[in-house]
Each structure stands twice: as structure tokens, then as C-alpha cells.
Amino acid sequence: MGEAPAFFADNLMGDSPKKVDSKSKGNETAIVVGSKIYVIDGVDHELGSTIGVRIFDKSSGEWRIPIVLGTKPKPSKDFSAVLLNDDRVLVVRGNSGSSECFWFLEVGTPFVREHEKTVGNEVVAWSKGVLGNVEKPIVISGPSGVGKGTLISKLMKEFPSMFGFSVSHTTRAPRAKEKNGIHYHFTDRNVMESEIKDGKFLEFASVHGNLYGTSVEAVEVVADAGKRCILDIDVQGARSVRASALEAIFIFIAPPSFDELEKRLRARATETEEQIQKRLRNARAELEQGKSSGLFDHILVNDDLETCYEKLKNILCLREAAKSAPKTIPESFNLSIKHPVSMIDQKLLINCTAAEHENTSTNMYVLDFLLKGGAPGRTRGLNMYAINPVTDDVNGNNQLHLTSSFD
Ligand SMILES: Nc1ncnc2c1ncn2[C@@H]1O[C@H](COP(=O)(O)OP(=O)(O)OP(=O)(O)O)[C@@H](O)[C@H]1O
Ligand SMILES: Nc1nc2c(ncn2[C@@H]2O[C@H](COP(=O)(O)O)[C@@H](O)[C@H]2O)c(=O)[nH]1
């Protein structure tokens, strides 16, 4: 690796030109975010099997190797990188099909910051960009015993092919009828804590004295099956998901009264008296936060079960009806060796020029990434369409082409 050309950071540092040590082989792109320079290398020279990321801290003049979360892209000799919103880098890999083309590297999102606090190191997180519209996951929260599980079961029973449940991890003991892998992934605290450190969880919280968490995989498994994911998590978890890149619909289920909540919790007969008392104490705080925090898009009172269920279905149907018609997405395409990219109006314009027909065939694609997705893992809901660079605008609409007298 010593023979590699060094990466010069002088043009990025602003002050005295400074040659910084690098293991690069020259196939790298630098993205400046505040006082840091993220150097994305077509090959990670430690691992060899992925695109590499290093961070140069301008203030200390030091290189840092971050902890890398999420699915990592395979190495690429040819890629472009664009900074989005100061906290995510879009990496477009050349010479790859539509499923391996688009990657997001989170560099300063709340999700990454949270993990930096947990692990005490720089963190970046990869997620793969997935083309195609996708329904937003549904986060359902509310105090223990309010009926979240009952409502979710009804939804899954009525629409088995539409919804999938995100199976959480928990350190609590299974109840009599609960099955590992179906109701929860029952796990040991040590194992779960170590997996949290490794970035395997989208969110986690200590709830009623036990650890609960949604793994990235739990959400991805549902989305990969083409289903809309439902998360049954507490208010702390909902807050963490809000801070993540997973764009979801947040619904809070409230009881008609505190007495009714207590009645349901006791009637369920799954907890000891001590546990019931703990859950009721926590319920007061959750009700306060849930109703007043502005965290939730909808608050439903679960008085009569059937009425509440109808309201829940209404919320979900309305959202679906409001969805805009998808644009045409190329079934499969291969980005050629040269693909300069530029941003216009929150859209990425990709200029694909086939190397062998350099002057003859130019295809323009627009990548519309206003929709956010899951992290770290897959960022879903990207929209891609081809445009004619002469006659279409970036929305794919045909526009009047004015020819000048010199044409
Ligand atoms: N609208 C309702 N009216 C009367 N009983 C209800 C209603 N909804 C749910 N229940 C009952 O209340 C009990 C608690 O419901 P459920 O287990 O679904 O609550 P939960 O919110 O999922 O609780 P947890 O957070 O502890 O998992 C169950 O016995 C269920 O049958
Ligand atoms: N933050 C999270 N909370 C979770 C998750 N899975 C479940 N929960 C919440 O825990 C309580 C208690 O559940 P129980 O099954 O022991 O009755 C309840 O409010 C759930 O919503 C999770 O992954 N993350």
C-alpha cells in the first residue's frame, strides 16, 4: 500500500497546504462536511471487499477510521459522490445494475450521532438505495395493556399479504403462548448489549425493567418481502425512530380511561402484581408524553375495539390513496463507466455516457430521492426515470425547446 499516491488535502483545508498520509490507490473522492473530510475510497484497503471510508479531521490534522454500520457496498473503480443535506452522501457506483447502484452514507444524521455517543468513536452508516415506491412503516405506541397488539393482530389477519410485523428483541422472559422468532426474539442482556454496540439496532429502550429493541434486520425482512412494516414499540423507541432515517407513520393508542387500562392489564393476566404496578406507573408518563409531545401523527382512543380498528384502517387507507402515481423506473439498467452527476431541484441528474460510444449515446436519468427510507440497511422509495436532455425538464415533463438562431 506504500506505493499508492498520497491524498492531498490542501485544496480542502483552506490554509497551509498539507500532505496527509493515506493508503489510497488514487481512486477516491473527498466530501467536506464542516471540519471533517470524508474520504471515500473505491476499495477499502483493509477489507478489500467493500468501498472504504476514512475521515480527516481538519482541526486536529488527524485521520480517523470510523466504525462502519449497515450493508457495505462492494468495491468499485468508478463511482461519484454527492453530499445531501450536510449529513448524507449519495454514492453512485458505475458499472453496476440498478440494485447495486445507489448507496447512502450517513455521516452526521441523528442516528449516527446517537451511535457515536454509545460507542465513543466516529461512526458512519451505509444503506443501499432501493428503487420503487414503498409504503411507509407504521409505528404503533401506547401504554402497556391499551390494546396495541390486539389491533395489530386484527390488521395482520385481515391483510396478511399487505402487512408484516417487525419482530423485536427483548430480554424479558417469554409468556406462556409466546414463540421465539414470532412474538419476539428472546435474548440475553449481554448478547443484546453487544449487538446494540455493533449497530444492529434501529432503536432500543429499557422498558419496564427489560431491554427491548428493533433490529435493522427485523424491519428489512418485512420490506424485502414486499410488505408494509408494523412496529409495536414504546414512546422512547418511537422517538428514536423519528430521529432515524426511517420515515414512518406514528400512531399513539390511548385508553378511554386509566381505570379501563388497569382493568385490561389485569384481565390479560400475563404479569405479576409487581409488574402490573410498574407498567401502570410507566403508563402515566407514556400517556403524558404520547399525547403532548407532537411526536405522533395520529392519536386513537381504543374504547370500543371495532370502532378503533376502523379508525386505524381509515388512517392507513387515506395515506395510501394520497400516494402519488409512480413514475416509470427502468426495470434493470447498467450505469456505464462515466456517469457525471449533478443536483437540480433536490433531484440527481445522472449523465450516462457509454465509454465505447463516448460521443454518440448519452442517456440522462433523474434520481428523485425526496423519499427517505430505512437506516442502516436500505433506503427505500427512490424514484428513477429517464429523460430526454433536450426536450424534458428534470420532472420528466416535455418542455418547449427554444432553438437559437445559431442552431
Ligand atoms: N377495546 C378494547 N376493549 C376491551 N378490551 C380490549 C380492547 N383492546 C384490547 N383489549 C384487551 O386488553 C388486553 C391488553 O391488550 P393487548 O395485549 O393488545 O395490549 P398491548 O397494548 O399490546 O400491551 P403490551 O404493550 O403490554 O404488549 C387484552 O386482553 C385485550 O384482549
Ligand atoms: N422501544 C421498544 N419498545 C418495544 C419493543 N418491542 C416492544 N416494545 C414495547 O414494550 C412494551 C412491553 O411489551 P410487552 O410485550 O412486554 O408487554 C410495550 O409498550 C411495547 O410496545 C421494541 O422493539 N422497542
TrEMBL record:
Residues 135-317 form the Guanylate kinase-like domain. Pfam families: Guanylate_kin (PF00625). Residues 266-293 form a coiled coil. SMART domains: GuKc. The keyword tRNA-binding does not apply. The keyword Transmembrane helix does not apply. Its EC number is 2.7.4.8. Keywords: ATP-binding, Coiled coil, Nucleotide-binding, Transferase. It is an enzyme of class 2 (transferase). HAMAP family: Guanylate_kinase. This is guanylate kinase. The lineage of its organism: Eukaryota, Viridiplantae, Streptophyta, Embryophyta, Tracheophyta. The gene is LOC107032404.
